[in-house]
Amino acid sequence: MDGLTNGLTNGRKAAEPRGDLTVRTIAMPADTNANGDIFGGWVLSQMDQAGGIAGVDRAQGRVVTVALDAMTFIRPVRVGDVLCVYTRVASVGRTSMKIEVEAWARRFCTQVREKVTEATLTFVAIDEAGRPRPIPRDAPESPRATPGRQAEAAG
Predict the structure, then answer these.
(1) Is the pTM of this model over 0.70?
(2) Dist CA 51 CA 31 (whole Å)
(3) Rounded distance, CA 1 to CA 10, Å?
(4) Residue 35's pLDDT is what?
């Protein structure tokens, strides 16, 4: 169990996810490699989708992924784990924004939660023709930033 039971690690409180719970899905057998582990590309895809959702919310319109910083897989994701992906808008430029994304696994049939990877993705807001467009300066309230969302992810 790697010492992560009941939210404690070696007597200290375990780290908590940062950001809003944006995507929550279960890892299925179809998502595995020949060794039975969940493909890293599947996890990355879930993170890109979550970042895109957060980007659309912030940009108030269409966005595209243009970059991904380095990504290190900390722990594997296994069949039956619930993958919870959290997002936080880190910075906003004129047409682009950086979104911090964390993926956490809630282990199958347990309440054990572990961070599996993190990355910062860069998105560009685009218009109907696919050209970069300005991101509105007024940030709308995130629909996922409601009380209880963090607790919901833990359960």
Answers:
(1) yes
(2) 20
(3) 12
(4) 85
